[in-house]
Amino acid sequence: MNYxxxxxxxxxxxxxxxxxxxxxxxxxxxxxxTNNWSSQIVLSYILGGLYQKMGYSVExxxxxxxxxWGGIHRGSEHIQVEVWEGTMQEAFYRISKYxxxxxMGSHDAITREEWWYPSYVEDVCxxxxxxxxxxKCAALFATDKTAPKGRYxxxxxxxPEKARIRALELDFExxxxxxxxxxxxxxxxxxxxxxxxxxFNWTPNWVDVRYEGxxxxxxxxxxxxxxxxxxxxxxxxxxxxxxxxxxxxxxAAWVGMKERWPCAWGVxxxxxxxxxMIGTVAAMADKDGxxxxxxxxxxxxxxxxxxxxxxxxxxxxPMK
Length: 320
Ligand code: TMO
Known about the structure:
The protein is 37% helix and 17% strand. The protein is of the alpha/beta class. The chain has 2 domains: 25-110 and 248-308, D-Maltodextrin-Binding Protein, domain 2 (3-Layer(aba) Sandwich), CATH 3.40.190.10; 112-227, D-Maltodextrin-Binding Protein, domain 2 (3-Layer(aba) Sandwich). It is elongated, with a radius of gyration of 22 Å. The relative contact order is 0.19. Bound molecules: trimethylamine oxide (TMO).
């Protein structure tokens, strides 16, 4: 009889005896993808740290969101802990259609990735957060480089910002920040002098728990807005809408994990972060100056109850 069937039978008939599968089921390293914003990196180290407690060997592989999919598809990388609807939906569905990359479920967190401004901007640009207010106020956001047009500071992730600016006839130019840190440097500079700024931001993020501000309300996103020029306020161009306002946040894995490391697979399925949890770990790194590893270690040591609840029943930790 197959080991797993036997184990299942024993567990079914003797619910009072707990049977721990020997861990790790494979010595091969579990390779976790890290991207370039803090919550994703801290969550990766949290999961990796938990795997190490369980006896697994773990490696981290730094990737751009645009180049991360092939490795998971082929099984050379195994896990992505934050797949955001607003930036990754299209690629995620396209690649997972082949069946090699699997949807490992959604976090409770509800996500949004959108143009964002600090609250004080409303004093000088009435009508916000409605996007039409930007038509009248564009010049307020000008920099030396963009004047008389306003500057929209975009993140280092590819988004159809130029298409949106064109379709909504906004008097803005896109400046692309090279790193997430550059976004926060510019935000803090503006904040200090209460200078108008509009930039790419997202939730959950550290900004949620430390700053006041709002997302711009563009025309509500639909799939058609991205494909059919006839849709929406501009009949000639697509992208006359915003990003999804309440998006999902998924986990993804290489399908072969299930066979090779079943307990790690189960943990990833159960791993679950809320908006507040993600904002808090991001703030440890982006505001409080901890390294991503330090933030992950702190979280693991203070949240044993949470991560213990992710362990499948048959996957207990090895005795220390
Ligand atoms: C993918 N991101 C959360 C940075 O928008």
